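Late entry, written up from scratch paper. The run itself happened at the end of the previous shift, but nothing got recorded in the book at the time, so transcribing now.
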Amino acid sequence: MTVTSFILKNALRNGRRAFLTVWSVAVSSALLVTLMTLERELTVPPEAAGASLRIIARNKVSLTQPLPAKQLGTIQAIPGIVTVTPFTYFGGLYGDEEFTSYPQFAVDPVGFEGMLVESKVSEGSFADWMKDRNTCLVGRDTMDRYGLKVGDPMKFRGTIYPCDLDLRVAAVFEGTVDDRGVFFHHKLLDELLGDPGTVGTWYLRAESAEVADDVIQRLNAAFANTAAEVRAESERAFQMGFVSMWGNVSQLIGSVNLVVVFTLALVTVSTMSMAVRERFRELAVLKALGFHRGELFGFILAEGFGLSCLGGLLGVVGAWAFWTGIDVGKLSGGVLVIFEVTLRNMALAGLVASVLGVVAAIGPAWTVNRMSVVEGLKTLD
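Output as recorded:
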């Protein structure tokens, strides 16, 4: 019998206990991977290829405060800006839905055409959307979700504004990080609201990433000390501002992670303690036969490490296969765009399981190390 087969035989001596231990570690590891991935998706929004060029200017007082539409001329005169459009969040409910997860924005189609450089119109045409203010540009994911096609109606009930939208799909876009949005004419919103002369925010694109910071500074300076000061920031910074509204998500999920790790530690410690206690006599006999304390210590550590590694591997791979093989957007009701299980999170969960397996075996191994042969042989089964 080799050392490897000896360790394996002892680890699998009680098949039911070994199975339950591996399964418990696997479930805990899968949960750990899921929680870490959820934290990443909630706190680190996906970034599009052209995000470094896009800038959003909002009211400095609050995002809920509108900006004067007459600011457009001043913004267009700032060097380094390629295109600019009003960008007003509508926040309507589609059809009879009580919760609609994707946003709707009122924009100027002419200015908006040059904003999403990474996207393409896959159905319909941008020209059809531009010439009819009662139409909309819809993301591919939303089209697939409802089984829509070009020419179909889309009706939204207003929740923020006292008006409803009765739109028709004119074109479909895809290729962005989030292909869910619906964009319609800002002139239509102005008409429905009685032309208030305001916009929610300004959305603009800089010539290059090198001039983006200068454009932001010029925007802020252009409206400083006015009745409607703006706060211009990159698209990335604007996204992170929304993330902060969730509160301390990282701390909450981190607390749950600690509970999972603590539970995993209890499982492995309990298993190793019982497994070693049952074999005190055998281990004493091995000592009497000439096995050194270090060898016995290594046998027990290898046993705990092996069971934990097996469970961790099954849990990590299982979590990756599950979240990769399902439609997360549909499962979450559109709250999550993607749910990417990264190699880093998988490795971290596997490392936690492996380390806890070793740590759990140290106590029982140390007890055996200090036990004399006589004490071991006196142990009752």
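The mean pLDDT is 82.
(Scratch paper discarded after transcription.)
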